[in-house]
Amino acid sequence: MLTLVTGTTGQVGRRFVPRLLAQARPGERVRVLVRDAGRGEPFAELGAEVVVGDLRDAEALGKAVAGVDVVVNVAAAFRGVPDEECRAVNHDAAVQLGAGRARCRGWGRFVQVSTGLVYGTGRGRPLTEDDESRPGGGMWGAYPESKARAERELLAMDGLDVRVARLPFVYGEGDPHLAQSLMWAKHWAATQRLHMGHHVDVAQGLLRILHAPGIAGRIYNIADDAPVTAVELHQLNGAEVPPELHERTDPDPWLVLMSTERIRRELGYRPVYPSVYAARDAGAL
User: Fold this and answer.
1) Nearest Cα to Cα of residue 71 among 31, 22, 27, 116
2) Number of helices (H) and strands (E), helices first, in the chain?
3) Beta bridge mates, 197
4) Binned average pLDDT, 10 residues per bin, the chain of 285 residues
């Protein structure tokens, strides 16, 4: 079995691929698509096949999917990029990848890595995979909009075994995301919460979604058990809490807070780090 992984040089991909390779059984191979040959060398040293090219380039895409049985599409464009690039990578390239996989040689598994931001506004309770997307809220924009469109179109492809993983705010293992969270948290109300997931648990969830039989068309939330407040994010980063946080009101207390009941019941997911504090105490930040 040959598995293609995209987005391998991003924060999620670079931590997922080594775990995928470490669990590979005899006869299982991993191919990665990278835009720069030098950034593919660490994966080659671990035993991955490397294809150099851009996901948006038809010729490179053809080389990447040739002979592939499974695709894990981790690629994403978000913070700090133009809306056009968000849509080109998150929607256009993802749909073309699904269509290219279908043309390649029959039908195989396609894991689409998405985001909990696709839910849009909160529902007054933890969000479930059956909740529709409701555009809006403080975190809505081209990124969740393009990911939501890609989900819908991939899931509608006739016969393609698509599984969708919706990720929370990902952190850990030296990822700068935790420090970057203050870019937003400093503008929040003190009690506004962020749902998080450690890279160990994101990789665990993706591997379970990838390997589980009989789950074509299923969507799964991946997250930890304890969303943290804006105050806690400052404290975790050793930053002073701005007093104005306590003067603000959270406009949507359930924004992007997700239920993980489905992935627990159906796939046996249990977070290794159920909270950021567990990860901190284990030295895994």
Assistant:
1) 31
2) 12, 11
3) 170
4) 96 98 96 95 97 91 91 93 95 93 69 98 97 94 97 94 98 96 97 98 98 97 98 98 98 97 98 98 98
